[in-house]
Amino acid sequence: MFSLKNNLPTTFVLFANSLPHAVFVFESPTAELSLESHLIYTNANAHSILDLKPNHKNTQTILDLFPRFQSDGFFSQILHSLEEGKPSRIVISHQELFQKDTSNKKIYSLQTAILTANQFSFLLEDITETVEAMENTDKMLHFTGIQNSRLQNFAYIISHNVRQHSANFKSLIGLLEENLTAEEKKSIMEMLHTSADKLNETIIHLNDIVSIGQMLNKPTEVCSLEKEIQKTLNILKGSLESRKIQIILELESNLNLRIIPVYLESILLNLISNAVKYIRLKEGAFLRIIAFKKENQVHLVFEDNGLGINLEKHGDKIFGMFKTFHKNEDARGIGLFITKSQVEVLGGTITVESLEGKGSTFTVILPDSPDESLYI
């Protein structure tokens, strides 16, 4: 403890020294706390946080110790609470509190109270572990919800689609056992082949749902968005050229993203191929792809002038399984469901804006460096 000159009660000093938190006491020349209030007491935990030396001068003010208070709104929050006669409590990060040290990731609860007419206590409690535990709980709940949704869709396919195929096979086989002509048997065999193809497609969809969870065990890599987008455009080059779709790229330079590569490939392929699949114009069709980083998040925007979707009618179904909104023969209603699932397990979001007959804009937002704890 510093030998700061103060007239604090011995009981308070003993109590403050026994606390596992940092305690500061400031004295103001007036009855109101101000940035110029002087430090008159600190306990050992406060010394450790501030990294002060035993011979440090005792003339420090609140502004000297917490320079960010001058520009941020924290100090005004403290004053507002004290003016109402209530203790103040704010949650603040180490970086916000001590602007010189940006490497420390701790989070504190800063509680301020009135001790005497012109003395004020600051109690700084390290709540990093509590906050992290709450965040991890939120993440677990978030991904549990996603997993439950996938299980429900899996159960739907088993109970509805597979049972439907099974009943169809049983009926056709029953017909084959009857006394049929060669032409009738040939027709039933063709229907069996068709049913087999449909069952195989359903099994592929089931595998896609299962693979979402399995892929989470794969390591993340730093991927160049420009390279990955170009790779996808090259895969679809034939379709893009045959449909005369103009590609407009507005990509931030040297934009990288840490991600499971196969997820990024799937997300790009699904969203770009959708724009190709649902083209509206024979001339003048375009797909604009925008990519930029903002506040540790990578934004991917896919804008087209294709068929578009009536969101008032279909908005709540657009990312659902087996939901199709156009009469394209190759529409299966699985691509956007898979894309949304992949984006969400990466800790991101996907939204859509669309007008029927005008086009659609899909926006994907992903963390540029997802936390490893996301992959559960």
User: CATH topology of the largest domain, anyone?
Assistant: Heat Shock Protein 90
Question: Can you identify the CATH superfamily of the largest domain?
Answer: Histidine kinase-like ATPase, C-terminal domain
CATH architecture label name of the largest domain: 2-Layer Sandwich
Total helices: the number is 12
The strand order across the widest sheet is: 2-1-5-4-3
Category by helix and strand content: alpha+beta
Helix percentage: 40-55%
Report the order of strands and helices.
HEEHHHEHEEHHEHHEEHEEHHEE
Radius of gyration: 31 Å
**Mean pLDDT metric:** 77
The beta-strand count equals 12
Strand percentage lies at 15-25%
Q: Which overall shape is indicated by the principal axes computed on the Cα atoms? A: elongated
Largest sheet: 5 strands, antiparallel
Number of structural domains: 3
What is the class of the largest domain in the CATH system?
Answer: Alpha Beta
Runs in which pLDDT lies below 50 for 5 or more consecutive residues are: 372-376
Q: Distance between the terminal alpha carbons, to the nearest Å?
A: 46 Å
Organism: Leptospira noumeaensis
GO molecular function, one term: protein histidine kinase activity
Pfam family, one: HATPase_c
Enzyme class: transferase
Using brief descriptors, characterize the structure shown.
3 domains, Heat Shock Protein 90, 376 residues, five-stranded antiparallel β-sheet, alpha+beta, 12 helices, five-stranded mixed β-sheet, Beta-Lactamase
